[in-house]
Structures
1.
Amino acid sequence: MRKGLSGYATLTDPAYSSPQEWDTFTCGHCWPPTIHRVQPFCDPADLGGLCKVCMRLVCPRCLGEGCAPFERALEREEANAQAQRWMEQG
Amino acid sequence: MALYGTTNQSAATPALTAVAGAPGKTMLQLAAQTTGIRRAWIYEYKVGPLSAPNATDCELVWTLLKQTSAGTGGVTLTINALDQADSAAATVALGNFTAEPTGADTGIVDQVPANQRGTFQWVVAPGGPGEIVIPATNLAGYGIRVRSATYVGNAGASAKFRE
């Protein structure tokens, strides 16, 4: 699970004596991808889950929806835009 | 792998952009463009206020969201390669819009409610997992937007990405 926490976020706030820091992960299924902050020592079940097909962390919203890596939606969006451009150019 | 960086102040004559109420004001937009169109991957962004704090303590709500058009009246910002030997970026950076780019709340990637004196940074290793992909679609990309009901000063945003 720890290997999936690929990002790091830092918030400075005058209400705290030191910066607030979190590990983050980017959902492997959401399109557009969503960034999720992880509380220290949180229950891994609260994060969402690990997709055993693409081996990426997924957010609670995508959990149990099957493996649909965001690259598929990305490719669909690019193909749609390309088709539209061709049609507009005649 | 070429790395690039830009801010909403990266211009020959930097224009300060004031924070607005809902839905907010896009400080920095990174988007693909027709010329040399290609994907790009955002691996870092930083945000914070650029003006003195409001007398009444208040919030700044920062949002990274997907946008599908350029805003009206935006200025093109300079993108610098972190390694000066790299070629110029194909991605375009825009800011200081008079009318907001198209982007619904359903496209929110990240949101940070912060104090008006707060700053926020998010980073992943460039080339590693977790980067935010800009599709190779003309003027599709991501904007860093900020809103506040009270704060009317200026704000700054910077981002780093790779192509």
Note: Chain A has one domain: 2-89.
2.
Amino acid sequence: MVGIVVVSHSAELASGLSALAAQMAGPDVAIEAAGGTADGRLGTDEAGVAAAIERAGRDGDGVVVLGDLGSSILTVRSLLAEQPDGHVKLADAPVVEGAVTAAVTASAGADLEAVVQAAEETRDARKL
Amino acid sequence: MPASSEAQTTATLPSDVDLHARPAAAFVRAAMAFEASVTIAADDREADAKSLLSVLALGAKAGTSVTLRADGPDAARAVDTLGELIAGLVETPG
């Protein structure tokens, strides 16, 4: 099953969103949070993100990464550029809608491309 | 060629389960298993049954009658299965 990683400047935001996505997707999807710096401040920890990707990829079916803003995205991009791996994709999607949709889509057994696509389709979803 | 690739049914949400959060996710997950395109309609609004955000935005309340329409080779099985799922949803705690 495709795994999901939520990257945020905030540890609370990453873990809260991961919990929400996990509640909706059920126990079979690996959803990992990577939030804040290693010393507990707001920011991004490249090693922490790499470790989360490693954990989420335990099934070998690929990993979709959702990031919140700016340096979260840049950190993931640089990590993926350093270690090119076709099994890890950064979705260009709003982080809440994207993570929840990706997790539920993964829980249906969809493949990596389908999970990325479902996440990215949420860019056009209106709230009202 | 099959006689018809379209199917439709109605189902009623249990009196204590809104189609939100986990119940909506369970419904969408089940809908994704079918090849047919599937829509769910409630109160004159319609959603793509395979789109979580679309189903969440529909906001179908407990006790509401919904209409399921499917178009595709497994349309009949899709509306039967999903209709039963809607009627049998439970709000799991926690």
Note: The helical segments of chain B are 21-31, 52-58, 75-87.
